[in-house]
Amino acid sequence: MPDMERMPCPFFGADVELTAERERHIAEYHPDLLPDQVRRSARFDAAKMFSKMYTDLRGGKHVVVVVVSDEAPTRRHWVITAYMARRLVEGEVEWKRA
Length: 98
What we know:
Elements: E1 4-9, E2 14-19, H1 20-29, E3 37-40, E4 47-54, E5 61-69, E6 77-85, E7 92-96
Antiparallel strand pairs: 1-2, 3-4, 3-7, 4-5, 5-6
């Protein structure tokens, strides 16, 4: 069986699977969905903010998805919130698309 992520989906009431092959496909053929940058949250040490700028969204907005991580013992990562912002003002940039 290929490497796979499972994400619970309340709509289906079940896990949704994302294989490594499908993730590579999305990155190759739909790069507009990948983040522009990842920032470390200034408020929560365990949180990262993945952002993507969309110029055609409400006059130009960043879509930000905040992911919190537990290091031990489970190494769990989960989306805690998502929002739109006109500017990104918080957090140190850890990664930026070249």
